[in-house]
Queue: 2 jobs
Job 1
Amino acid sequence: NAGVMQNPRHLVRRRGQEARLRCSPMKGHSHVYWYRQLPEEGLKFMVYLQKENIIDESGMPKERFSAEFPKEGPSILRIQQVVRGDSAAYFCASSPDIDGPKTEAFFGQGTRLTVV
Amino acid sequence: AQSVTQLDSQVPVFEEAPVELRCNYSSSVSVYLFWYVQYPNQGLQLLLKYLSGSTLVKGINGFEAEFNKSQTSFHLRKPSVHISDTAEYFCAVSWDTGRRALTFGSGTRLQVQP
């Protein structure tokens, strides 16, 4: 059973370009979470999705950021018109459809975005 | 607002010495508590979790943590650390409000010296 797969592992974008980060959850997991880790900081929650639905986007910046988790395929975090402050590690996690808040989240290895 | 506090940003310790990494959380409802470890340029790996029952929880790699409801703490301990334990450690909390997403502390960097 493969773990949470994120790609690319490293992504370099120029200011103003778009960044698309992909996350394939573990097999059988229908819940996906995105977190951002700025240098020397902890993980900040961004968005929580279930298949085809955004459940909680309270941590998403209001502009330029969007996320989706289609019925088929990976979850995508999109950042439009990137700025230097978007440089960070973006982690995806997934969990199964049981136990609610008690559920352990399994993390991918992250995508490290560098905006130049 | 619900929050998680890790007061120590860095903890240097000599090999084979004991260590305690502190975690406190705000509480108004039941909580579920987790410790994750992050090695350089890697994702997060679960060390242990407290859901209910015994307040002393044992995890992987010889780590354990104790849930203290009155002090709203969930400190991580290891009686004898190894060089390979050098990593970033994150405490995470989920509150029993139906919200599934974890809230993380700012992390503690454990530096084990020979």
Job 2
Amino acid sequence: ETGVTQTPRHLVMGMTNKKSLKCEQHLGHNAMYWYKQSAKKPLELMFVYSLEERVENNSVPSRFSPECPNSSHLFLHLHTLQPEDSALYLCASSQDGTGSYGYTFGSGTRLTVV
Amino acid sequence: DAKTTQPNSMESNEEEPVHLPCNHSTISGTDYIHWYRQLPSQGPEYVIHGLTSNVNNRMASLAIAEDRKSSTLILHRATLRDAAVYYCILRDVRFRGSSNTGKLIFGQGTTLQVKP
């Protein structure tokens, strides 16, 4: 257990479904991140939250909607996804957004869109 | 953030030291050198990071060249559990919300195979 917990670990959803991924950390970190890892590809940074404020959206389609209600929790709301959105979704946190600190990653949610 | 260059793959024998190289010739004075690794079917794991001086922790050592244009991650005794993809990433000490500055941006990394 890394200190960053993601649920569920696996998710299968249809293209018309709405689901949410959850990430929780109790490390006292102030920055949280969503990454996507497709097969045989490097991790792609999707969203960045610093002090609960979204500071980065890397051209992610609107069918992905992040939410950060407090510094310990991060959600990724999913709706009308496409099969190509099937991937491992990883949450991470860090003390702050600077390069002085490392990131702690969760184990990820393996998403399959059918 | 400046880019890094790593070999695509390396092999090592179990219980021998492993030296994983990383070139970063365009590193700036405010860039930290970070190393992460990702085991199969898991999220990345922080290994070590440094700015100018060599660093040691329980997992590995980081040797940074005097001109900072290259670095080497050293695993002192490789085990089968060290087989993973190792990423060398430069991160600016500053954080800017509207750019990639300070953020962890992954490349392809080096796939390390450890043979028994």
